[in-house]
Amino acid sequence: MRIGQLAERTGVSVRLLRYYGQQGLLTPRRLGNGYRVYAEDDVRLVRYIRSLLAAGLTTAVIGRLLPSVCERDGVLRPCTPELADELRRERDRIDEQVAELLASRRLLEEVIEAAPRHAP
Predict the structure, then answer these.
(1) Looking at residue 84, what DSSP letter applies?
(2) In 3D, which of 62, 51, 48, 27 has the Cα closest to residue 3?
(3) Burial class of residue 57, CB neighbours in 10 A (0-12, 13-18, 19+)
(4) What fold characterizes domain 3-114?
(5) Mean pLDDT in runs of 10 for the chain (120 residues)?
(6) HTH merR-type domain location, by residue (predicted)?
(7) Model's pTM, two decimal places?
């Protein structure tokens, strides 16, 4: 299938699909005329990529992880203990970011609360 068909089937823009290719996440076959041709499995692969991005992973991390990800019963699962360890590290990194954001939010709340109030 061509890139437009893949975009339509996955709901991902052509621009993003090209970006995934540049990042090494998708490797379409090229025809003699330069057109990209995608396989049926690429539909599922794009869905994996979108799921992992939604989980907070970067494309660089996803590129390292994709070869070791399996699907079972429609759920992505680590296929190796090493992958599970890397995913735990990514989870910890995200937890740190969440903690930093919450601290920033608390500070912002303090500043807002210290602001003068409008007279009724």
Answers:
(1) H
(2) 27
(3) buried
(4) Multidrug-efflux Transporter Regulator; Chain: A; Domain 2 (1.10.1660)
(5) 94 95 92 90 91 88 83 76 86 93 96 86
(6) 1-68
(7) 0.72
